[in-house]
Design a protein that fits this description.
about 290 residues; alpha/beta; TIM Barrel; 8-stranded parallel β-sheet; two-stranded antiparallel ribbon; 12 helices; 10 strands; about 45% helix
């Protein structure tokens, strides 16, 4: 869940809502005059929340010239990673990697301990997604900026819908690039209308089917829907446990193939079963 870092009241409440991670925002939700205040509050609340939930900070984009000041303020013990918005080139990642490395050395943090969550919000960023996502070992997640009327829609000029058919190619390209770069955590952007739960459900269903692992949240009332849709269902978990059990039994009989619920199971299907079960096991427990 993204929280404006200049709002101490919102930062204090944020861990109570049940989001898997918090993103303290120094970028678009913070007025220019409040940037110094937001940095100071973000640093204060990183320390307060580090034992409660995973904390990230969305810094200002490279082009603003403020990224270094943001990183210097928040690269402290308890920060899991920074979210780099409007990423368009591997050079941007390498520049931020160097900033984080210097901040880690200065603050006595383990080298490479702060990750980078890449924000892709333009045609250029999507086109060079693989190169961007493989530019540093710090990159461990990516979010496609699909919010209605946001930077990506402005750049591409499409007409937005909850179903998202108009950006199917963009979502698919980012997913393929991420998987090719070895990145598991591929996230969809925010759903801007907090009073449209049905639209949110439709949107989540669409990107979950593609292989996305989550979605940005801008209001607490969106969390339950997103958590429910993106987690493996009880039916999926049961099925894949049975897949592994049936395959193990087949191997014990000297075979590498069997069926479960009428469907073929061999080594490939076992691989999928293990992936889904590992995904379920990694999710925060209620």
């Amino acid at each position: 869940m993204t929280v404006p870092a200049n709002r101490a009241d919102m930062l204090a409440k944020a861990p109570t809502y049940g989001a898997d991670a918090l993103v303290f925002d120094l970028e678009d939700s913070v007025p220019l005059a409040d940037k110094p205040k937001a940095r100071a509050l973000a640093a204060e609340y990183i320390t307060k929340h580090k034992t409660i939930t995973s904390v990230y900070v969305r810094v200002n984009a490279i082009e603003t010239g403020m990224t270094g000041d943001d990183i210097n303020a928040v690269a402290i013990d308890g920060l899991v990673g920074i979210k780099l918005p409007k990423t368009e080139s591997p050079a941007m990642i390498k520049s931020v990697d160097a900033m984080l490395g210097e901040a880690e050395r200065r603050n006595g943090l383990p080298a490479g301990s702060i990750g980078i969550d890449v924000g892709l919000e333009s045609a250029k960023g999507i086109w060079f997604a693989y190169e961007i996502l493989s530019a540093s070992p710090r990159v461990h997640s990516v979010m496609l900026g699909t919010a209605q009327d946001g930077d990506l829609q402005t750049d591409l000029g499409y007409t937005w819908s909850a179903e998202g058919n108009e950006i199917l190619y963009a979502r698919s390209r980012v997913l393929l690039a991420a998987r090719a770069a070895g990145i598991e955590h591929v996230l969809d952007g925010a759903y801007s209308n907090v009073r449209d739960p049905e639209g949110l459900r439709i949107c989540c269903d669409a990107v979950r089917k593609l292989g996305y692992r989550g979605k940005s949240v801008i209001h607490p009332n969106q969390i339950a829907t997103i958590n429910r849709i993106f987690a493996p269902t009880a039916r999926e978990i049961d099925y894949y446990y049975r897949v592994i059990a049936a395959f193990d039994a087949a191997v014990a009989r000297g075979s590498a193939a069997t069926t479960v619920d009428g469907k073929l199971v061999d080594y490939a299907m076992v691989g999928m079963a293990k992936r889904v079960l590992a995904w379920a096991d990694a999710l925060p427990k209620a």
